[in-house]
Amino acid sequence: MRTPNFSKHQVAGAYALSVVVWLAAAPLISWQMFSLERREHLPVAYHDLLLVYGARYLTVALLTPPIFYFVYRWPVTAGTVVRRSSAYVLGYLPFSLAFALIRWLLLPPWMEETLSFGPRTLDSLLQLTYGTFADVLFLYLSVVVCAHAYAYFVLGQRQEIERLELRQSLAQSELQTLRSQLHPHFLFNTLQGLSTLINTDRQTAQTMLFTLAELLRTTLKHGTADLVSVREELDFLKAYLYLEQLRLGKRLEVRWRISPQVHDAFIPQLMLQPLIENAIVHGVSSSQRPGWVQIEAAILDERLHVEIRNSIGGVSQPGLGVGIANTRARLRYLYGDDASFEFEVVHGQAAAAHLTIPAFRTPGENGAGSYEETLRCGSSRARCPSRPAVATLRRRGVQCGG
Questions:
Q1: Cβ neighbours for 354, distance < 8 A, ≥ 6 positions apart
Q2: What is the pLDDT of residues 32-72, one digit of tens each?
Q3: Fewer CB atoms < 10 Å away: N or C end of the chain?
């Protein structure tokens, strides 16, 4: 247990709360005792009993915060049960002495024989010490038990916060690892395509190299942001597909079906590029005939639906499994059960990857009118949407950026 460090305001607040809680019981106990005395036809005034029990519970209220401090500092835990339990049992002695002294100073002792207040003498102080043994023991044990319950509650909260912080840190580390897998994979496949054109078409190879440099500059601009706007992701895809069209020429046809509402929604950075890359490498490139890739995106029921279809033909070389596995893992860490990903081969003629995530959008902005307008406007700096659901992403370590 860490050493507590309380400010003066916290100490004052603790004493104030203790006084309020304990003194709230004084009128009830006083009325109960007053009713019992009246049944016995004993001449006692309610205000006298209220003073007696008010002084008693005020004394307990003044001794409660120190006990809470000691328990918070040295609670009875699994490895210290015998030693600390014994210490708290022995702690009753100073508690009872302090109780008797404070009670004696606050108000003269109450004499049950005469139902009146007696003089403050050393004899009355000693009688107050041993005459209320059972009652004070019950009060002491109640305070110690409540203090332990509070200490365990605070400890449980702290451990839960530490677990959440650790889980967030691990998730962020895992996301960073998953994202870093994409860069060498993407570079490897792109440079491999470049190498085939260097000796045959130097002009095209040079154009591809400049375009690749722009793509890498874009990824560096986003840095470690987990979420970017769909507008920026589509800009990146267009540049990447331009690279592939330079390499494949008329063998690659790109079809866009983008709803205007999706441009300002947020999507994980580099989420679509590996899927497009898979579509080209394992679909279009493996066929001798011209092929196509179709990208669809729309928002339905506050969810962003993205589908990537591509033609297939021939036999493709087996890949490393980075694209689909990486996509599933990143979605799991970012959205948990709020996202879905499906991949299927349709009638042996096409492959389809369908992605569904919550449609978080930038507040106060609307989608552009068309995809071409989006490209002309350039990438805008995305801001984190101020929605409660995004707070959940941030607790998982997700960063929005642009």
A1: 305, 306, 307, 340, 341, 342, 343, 344
A2: 988 888 888 788 888 888 999 999 999 999 999 999 999 98
A3: N
